[in-house]
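Hey, can you fold this?
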Amino acid sequence: MATLIRDKYEAHKAEVNARFDQLRANEEELNRIFAEIYDMVGEVPIAVEDKYVSVARIFDTADEIPASFKGNNYVRTRRDEIVSLISYAVGCMFGRYSLDVDGLVLADQGDTVREYLARMPDPEHVRFMPVADNVLAITDGAYFDNDVCALFERFLVAAYGAETLEENLRYVADALSPAGKGTPRDIVRAYFQKEFFADHCRTYKKRPIYWLLDAGRKGSFRALVYLHRYRPDLMARIRTDYVLPLQQRYASMLDTVQTELDAVEGRRRAALVKEQKRITDQAAELARYEEQIHRLADQMIAIDLDDGVKTNYPKFADALAKIK
């Protein structure tokens, strides 16, 4: 049955906020009881300030948060809840989570889709399958089967139904960027390109479990990989299955632009010159990145999860986004 994320959010917000109000009421009742026991009614405060209630409270926007909540680390917004949903979706793409079972699924070093299916109640009818190669591509367009935005849409269909996909995409995009330019798909892609990894690092206190391969500021190539599924041949597969094909795609795109440039004038020509510059810069950036990935691929680096992110991340620093 098709479901709207809006309805799920409103129900979740009502439950969370009711729990907040109940906890505050309970704490105030305890304060009143102890004040009576120790004959201190009127001498000690009974009311509990918003900032001291230690459970979540959800507001639709940051502008709605009252000053009385300043200092409360549990305040959340609709954007926070949608970011959490996206993070869960990425977890399902990697097989860390599943729509078919509760809790962690793939969390042991080197886990594969084989282990994922072994933990499913009905392996023949899995609602949403994780990627087989542990790579989620983040590029300007859906150039790969494992394009993270295309997979996010598939997740929404699996979780909420095909009939509500467009409305759910609009709702997600509006929560991420109420004044954002472009279509909902443009906004979602921009979020994955520019903000997802930063949000993930904040959630995991600068110890990310989803690592971002990043070719540079031109955005020629980015991809997420899941630390727990890392295997020594991962960088080699990224080079051969993603970076090298993308270099060929950029070369083909430049040929197409040049062909059109030879036949047009005016505003269209100016737009094409700008596009040609963008693709040329991306191609040059990707060529440099290919050399970095090639060096890492040749090393076949092994890691130990017990060493932690702080030890393992620097081993691939040339190819990964900086943790901020």
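Oh, and this one too while you're at it.
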Amino acid sequence: MAEILDAALVRSGTWGSLWLDGEQVAECYGCQIKLSKTKEDVARCRTLVAGKKLTGISGTGTVRIYNATSRLIQAEAQALKNGQDLRHTLISNLDDPDNPSNQRISITGVSFDDLTLADWEAAKLGQIEAPFTFEDFDVLDS
């Protein structure tokens, strides 16, 4: 007989939180952190199908925040004017009370890909997406 997923165990993003360089980002409403694999084809004898060999990984992600503070502008603008690409540490925590374990990930060497200086529209909530790359990660809790 097939096992049935207990729906209460599915983590809800409502219980997520994010820290940027040790400071909680209260205006954050979403976060995605991904690892992408780089693979090379491996030609093999006696088959026309190439195998795949992992040759590297790269880390990317996006932070989604409400435009309630100027946190990213304050953190990045002057450094960019000076030709500096600052590196940050992010910690994502998803601690749904229905799930017995939280999911906490730390990433370091975070470099934001762009900086939104202004983006607004009448009668619309201000939202900013901040894509980034990162250099290392640790699974703190799973």
